[in-house]
Amino acid sequence: MIEIDRLRKVFRSSLELPEDYDVDGLEYRGIEKWDSLAHMSLVAAIEDEFDVMIDTDDVIDMSSFGKAREILGKHGVEFA
Amino acid sequence: MSEEVFTLKQPEKDERLLEQLSALTRHHRERSPEYDRILLASGQAQDSYASVYDLPWLPVRMFKNHHLKSIPDDEIVKVLTSSGTTGDVSRIYLDRDAAAAQTRMLSRTLQTVLGPKRLPMLIVDSRGVVADRRSFSARGAGMLGLMNFGRDHVWVLDENGEPDVEVLKQFLAKHGDQPFLIFGFTFMVWLYLYEAARDAGLDLSNGILIHSGGWKKLIDRAVDNAEFRRRLAEDIGLTKIHNFYGMVEQIGTIYLEGPDGGGLYCPDFADVIIRDPETWEVAPIGTPGLIEVTSTLPTSYPGHVLLTEDLGVVHGVDDGAWPGKRFSVLGRLPRAEARGCSDTFTGGDR
């Protein structure tokens, strides 16, 4: 599976969204399901899926799907 | 890497804060007619102020009776409410910038003692406080903010509010040999973590404890800050202990106990001034009085200079582990209504 699809899948399953939900434009607090509590499980799920450790600053900074992608990029995950 | 926030010595800090807080006073007067009216009515409206001690303060309870905000309604992204026991609650309005700034500066402040990595986290509370997503108590909201600093969160209390020693042991078996974070309200840390860990003979020496909420509930046990630190160190090996003081009316600003336990320190963007409750004069070092708090974070509501209902004392200036003033909170001013996040927890009154 290509990396971007893995990330989309993590977002959908953590935030309990339907299989075909378009997550690419999602923003933190943009939908009811992405609240501060869900944010914590989302971060944990991303860490598990990509085997990375995300720092505090990045947890706070991860305000959108795009940002999550950027943060994973810093950890060497390639979204080419 | 985050910038450090405990760097400024007092003379430099006073100079910077005077400039920034004066500008904020102008900013809020221009945007909040109600704030402007209060300053005019109380004779505190000036074009400039000679010292940080001259800046006009608002009593915190003003936020209960007045809708004080400096942003249009359509820019409000978050309304915070304080927990009150006598009905009226404070309302604090944040726009996007203010909400982002408070999260960022709280994070920088805590990273001073926690470092940039998220640590395994033990929460001295039960999962229930954050279970109902639609109505968090003030305690639950505070908890959620702190959870960002941890990973693999474990709740020490079960659903009946009793400490689960097995859960504690499992956590320590997994994470106890490396730094880990412990968060809880002061009296709950004492009653539920300290006593349970001591009785089970557990070693928490790699823990970093962040706690808040005041000592009122521990007075009958004769536990003050010094005793708390001494007993936790001797009995369960916990020596990295940081109490903090903060309030919803200055969200994002916390005054953090230094590594030496010598008092609470003010981050570079905030400060405290102790005032004689009779004369409002600035109290000398070592003399208790009412705590005034200043912070540059409140840009969306006029909460940059506030007179609290708490008593405190400054122990020294530029003489401790971190620069600036170091102080202690002594409790509430008598007759002020009992108010505080942890007061919403009644299970501790046993």
Question: How would you describe what is shown here?
Answer:
The complex is a heterodimer of chains A (80) and B (350). Chain A is mostly helical and 80 residues long. Chain A has helices at residues 3-14, 36-50, 56-61, 65-74. Chain A has one domain: Non-ribosomal Peptide Synthetase Peptidyl Carrier Protein, Chain A (Orthogonal Bundle), CATH 1.10.1200. Chain A is built from four helices and no strands. The longest helix of chain A is centred in the middle third of the chain and has 15 residues, at 36-50. The relative contact order of chain A is 0.19. Chain B is of the alpha/beta class. In chain B, the strands form two sheets. In chain B, strands 1, 4, 5, 6, 7, 8, 9, 10, 11, 12, 13 and 14 form a twelve-stranded mixed sheet that branches. Chains A and B meet through α2 and α3 of A and α4, α5 and β5 of B.
Secondary-structure topology with pairs:
The complex is a heterodimer of chains A (80) and B (350).
Chain A: H1 3-14, H2 36-50, H3 56-61, H4 65-74
Helix pairs in contact in A: 1-2
Chain B: H1 10-31, H2 33-41, E1 58-59, H3 62-65, E2 78-81, E3 91-94, H4 96-114, E4 119-126, H5 138-147, E5 150-157, H6 165-175, E6 180-185, H7 186-199, E7 207-212, H8 225-236, E8 240-245, E9 255-257, E10 264-265, E11 270-275, E12 289-295, E13 305-317, E14 325-332
Parallel strand pairs in B: 1-13, 4-5, 4-6, 6-7, 7-8
Antiparallel strand pairs in B: 2-3, 8-9, 9-10, 10-14, 11-12, 12-13, 13-14
User: What is the makeup of the main sheet of chain A?
Assistant: none
Question: Order of helices and strands of chain A, N to C?
Answer: HHHH
The overall number of domains of chain A is 1
Strand content of chain A: under 5%
The value of Rg of chain B in angstroms is 20 Å
- Distance between the amino and carboxyl termini of chain A: 13 Å
**Mean pLDDT across all residues of chain A, rounded?**
92
Give, in order, the helices and strands of chain B.
HHEHEEHEHEHEHEHEEEEEEE
Largest interface: A-B, 15 and 20 residues
Structural class by sheet pairing and helices of chain A: mainly alpha
**Low-confidence runs of chain B:** 336-350
The proportion of strand residues of chain B reads 15-25%
Number of DSSP-assigned strands of chain A: 0
Q: What is the average per-residue confidence, as pLDDT of chain B, rounded to a whole number?
A: 90
Counted by DSSP, the helix tally of chain A is 4
CATH superfamily of chain A: ACP-like
Q: What is the CATH first-level class name of chain A?
A: Mainly Alpha
Biggest sheet details of chain B: 12 strands, mixed
